[in-house]
Q: What sequence folds into this?
C-alpha cells in the first residue's frame, strides 16, 4: 500500500487530532504476519498497537500453534495466544496449496511489511524467501526472527525463549552467587527479540520514504538477549573474568544496600528492593533518617560507598530489622517519598489489579468472543498522537471475508471454491 | 532538520546503496540527547546505531553521571558509559546558566527528537518541559523515560533498573520454586525501557511525515518490565493465582524436559538447556535416540506431554546421566543437529570471544582515545540497507567545535566567551 494513502492526515480535511491518534502512528501500514508462538507475534502485536493493519495468515485447520499452546480448554484459543495477538486480523491460507500460495502472493503485493519466525528454512521451502517476496513487491520490508544467525554454526537449530536465554548469556548472570544458572522469568529471548525486530521494521519504514525500497531484516534471538545483558560486559572488562551471578546485587556488584529485603507478611513476594547510589551519600543519609539510625550519618563504617560495601552484612542486617516491621507497600512508600530508591516486589496479580495501572491502560480488559472478558497488559509506550484502543485477538479466519473479499476483491464464489479446495 | 534534507538518497544522483546503508536508516534525523545512566542512553544509542545524529548534551565539568559509574580509573570514562554511548557526539552545556540554556534551545530548534531521563521534575525545573520544547520546535518528538508513570502514586519516586524489575513483576517470577525473588541479570528495567522508548520515537518519526507535527512520548520503566513478563499473565489466567517462580521451567511450567542440565566440566556455567515441545512427541523421540534410550519411544510413562511432566524426575535423571558425560557444546551440537531444542549456558567471555559472533558484528572492537581497543556487543538487528559502523563513545565535549561552530554557527570567540562564563 503506498504511503500516499495517508497524506490526508494532517491536512485541513483530515481527521481530528483525537481521531488520528485513535488510528495510530502506523495507520496505513499493512503487515503480512506469518508469525507463531511469541518471538514473532510480539513484534507484529507491537506494530498493531501502533496502528498498523496486521493480517495474520494461518494454517486453515488449526491455526497458528500458539492458539493451542497451554490452553485449558481444547478448541478454545489459549490465554497465551490472546496475550500476543491482540489487534490483529486473522485469515486462513494453506501454504501447501496453490490457492493458498496465490493468496499470500497477493497479500505481499499489497503490503508494506512481512514478518515470519518459522523454523529455519521453512519459509524458503514454501517459496517465500526474501528474493521471492521482493520480486512480488520491491517495497516490502521483510523481517525474520530465528534463534541463531543463519550463517553461523547453529543456523539450522530450533530455538525457544529458554534456549536463547541460555545461549545469549542471560542465565549465566542470573541466580544466587554460588547457585546454578537460572532462567529470568521475563521472556527476553522471545518478546525481547520481537521488540528488536519491531525497531528494525520501524527504522526501515522511515528509511523507505527516501529510498522507495524495502529491505531485509534479521534478528537472532541469541543476539537480542546479548543486548539486554550489555552492562554485564562492563563487569567482565572491570574484573577480567566472565560476569558472575550476583544474587540480587546490581550487575556491577559493589553497592550496599542493593538487595530485596524481606518485609512483614511472610508471603513469597513480601520483599522490597532498596538501593542507594554510590555517587554520593545522599540516598544513604536519607535512609538512615527513615529507619531511625540518624546517629550513623557520617559514621566511617558506612559514609563512603566502598565502606558500605565492605560492611554490607551490617547494612543488610540493619535494614532487614526495619523492613520486617512493615509491609512492602509501606516500605516502598516511606522510602520513595523520602527520595530513596525503593521498589516493592509486586506479583502478577497485584499488578493486574492495581487501580492506577488499570486507569492508565498498562492493563486492559478486552472482550473475547468465546472467553468473554480477559485482562491483559496493554502497550506500555504512551504517545500523545497515537492511542490505539486494544481489542481481543481474532478467532481463526475471522477476517477472511473482509480481507479476501474487501482487500483482494474475491467474490464469495471464489472464496467458496478456495474453501472447497482446502486452500483457506 | 527537515526530512527533505534526505530526498537525494535513492535518486539518480544519490549515494550508492552501500553508502546509503553505511549512513543508516535514520540518516538525517538529529537527536538532542539529555540521557544519563542506562534507561535513556540505551534508547539514544539504538537511534545512533540506526544512523541518527545523536548529540549528547552534558554538564561541563564532569559530564553525564554514567561516565564515572563503576569506573576502575578515576577521570577515565567507565566501561559502563562506553557500552551505552557509542556512536554519539558529546557537547557540554551548563543548563543552570543562561548561555547553556540558549544553546539547548538552539539545538532543539534544529533537531527532530529530544530524549531525557533525569529524576522526576528535573527537566521541567530547567525550563525544558514538553510545552516549552514544542514551542521552540513544533516538529520535535519529545521522549521521557521515568521509573513510574508521572500521574501515579509513585510518580515522583526515583528508580534504577532493579527498582523497575521489582515493581514490574520480573523478580516475582524469577528464582527457585521455594526460593526468594531474584533479579534477572539482564537489565530489562533499563535497556528494556530504553528500547520501548526507541520504538515510540521511531513510530512518531514515521507518523510525522504525514502530520508534520511532533508529539510527546512517555515510558515508565515499571510498565516496560510488565511487557517482558506478558506471558506470565497466561499462567495467572490458567491457575487463578499470581504467576509463581518456577526455577528453570518454562513460564507456564508444565513441560518436561525444560531444564538446564549439568554437563561435563564442573564450571559454574557448564550446563545445557534442553526443551521438548508439548505439541507432539517429535522432539522427545529424537532425544531418546540421541541418548541411547530408543527402547522408551512410545513408553506410556513418557509418550504424552502430560505423562512426561508427571514423570519429570525420571526425565531429569535420565537426561542428566547423559549430559554429565559430555561438555555443554557437544550436548548442544548433538541435540541441535538432531532437531531437539538445546542451548548451552554461555557466559560473557565465551560470547564475546566467539569467532562467529565477532565475524557477524554481534561483538565489535572499537578504538577509544584513552582506553584503546574495547570489545563490546554491537547492535543485534541486521538490516540489508542500514549497516552503520560502530565507533567508540565520545570524550566529554569532544564535539563542541563541530556542533557549536558547525551546526549552530558560533564563532571561536563566541565559544570562548561561553567557556569563560562556564556555560560550556
A:
Amino acid at each position: 500500500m503506498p504511503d500516499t494513502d495517508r497524506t490526508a492526515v494532517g491536512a485541513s480535511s483530515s481527521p481530528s487530532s483525537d481521531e488520528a491518534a485513535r488510528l495510530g502512528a502506523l495507520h496505513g501500514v499493512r503487515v503480512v504476519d506469518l508469525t507463531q508462538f511469541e518471538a514473532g507475534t510480539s513484534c507484529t502485536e507491537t506494530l498493531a498497537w501502533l496502528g498498523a493493519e496486521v493480517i495474520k495468515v494461518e494454517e486453515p485447520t488449526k491455526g497458528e500453534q500458539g492458539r493451542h499452546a497451554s490452553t485449558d480448554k481444547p478448541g478454545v484459543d489459549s490465554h497465551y495466544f490472546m496475550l500476543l495477538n491482540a489487534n490483529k486480523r486473522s485469515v486462513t491460507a494453506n501454504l501447501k496449496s496453490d490457492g493458498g500460495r496465490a493468496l499470500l502472493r497477493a497479500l505481499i503485493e499489497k503490503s508494506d511489511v512481512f514478518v515470519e519466525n518459522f523454523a529455519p528454512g521453512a519459509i524458503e521451502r514454501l517459496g517465500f524467501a526474501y528474493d521471492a517476496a521482493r520480486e512480488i513487491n520491491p517495497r516490502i520490508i521483510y523481517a525474520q526472527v530465528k534463534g541463531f544467525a543463519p550463517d553461523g554454526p547453529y543456523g539450522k537449530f530450533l530455538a525457544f525463549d529458554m534456549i536463547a536465554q541460555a545461549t545469549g548469556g542471560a542465565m549465566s548472570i542470573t541466580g544466587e552467587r554460588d547457585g546454578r544458572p537460572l532462567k529470568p522469568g521475563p521472556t527476553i529471548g522471545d518478546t525481547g527479540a520481537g521488540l528488536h525486530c519491531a525497531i528494525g521494521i520501524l527504522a526501515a519504514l522511515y528509511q523507505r520514504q527516501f529510498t522507495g525500497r524495502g529491505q531485509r531484516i534479521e534478528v537472532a534471538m541469541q543476539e537480542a538477549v546479548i543486548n539486554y545483558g550489555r552492562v554485564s560486559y562492563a563487569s567482565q572488562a572491570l574484573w577480567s573474568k566472565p560476569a558472575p551471578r550476583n544474587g540480587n546485587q546490581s550487575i556491577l556488584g559493589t553497592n550496599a544496600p542493593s538487595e530485596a529485603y524481606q518485609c512483614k507478611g511472610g508471603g513469597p513476594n513480601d520483599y522490597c528492593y532498596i538501593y542507594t547510589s554510590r555517587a554520593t551519600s545522599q540516598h544513604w543519609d536519607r535512609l538512615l533518617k527513615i529507619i531511625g539510625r540518624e546517629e550513623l550519618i557520617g559514621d566511617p563504617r558506612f559514609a563512603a560507598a566502598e565502606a558500605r560495601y565492605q560492611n554490607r552484612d551490617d547494612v543488610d542486617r540493619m535494614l532487614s530489622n526495619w523492613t520486617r516491621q512493615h509491609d512492602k507497600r509501606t516500605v516502598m512508600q516511606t522510602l520513595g517519598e523520602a527520595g530513596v530508591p525503593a521498589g516493592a516486589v509486586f506479583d502478577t496479580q497485584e499488578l493486574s489489579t492495581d487501580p492506577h495501572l488499570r486507569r492508565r491502560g498498562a492493563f486492559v480488559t478486552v472482550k473475547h468472543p468465546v472467553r468473554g472478558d480477559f485482562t491483559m497488559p496493554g502497550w506500555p509506550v504512551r504517545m500523545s498522537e497515537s492511542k490505539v484502543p486494544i481489542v481481543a485477538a481474532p478467532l481463526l479466519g475471522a477476517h477472511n471475508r473482509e480481507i479476501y473479499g474487501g482487500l483482494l476483491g474475491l467474490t464469495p464464489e471464489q472464496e467458496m471454491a478456495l474453501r472447497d479446495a482446502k486452500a483457506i
In short: The CA atoms of residues 192 and 370 of chain B lie 29 Å apart. The longest helix of chain B spans residues 191-211. Residues 1-5, 7-13 of chain B have pLDDT under 50 and may be disordered.
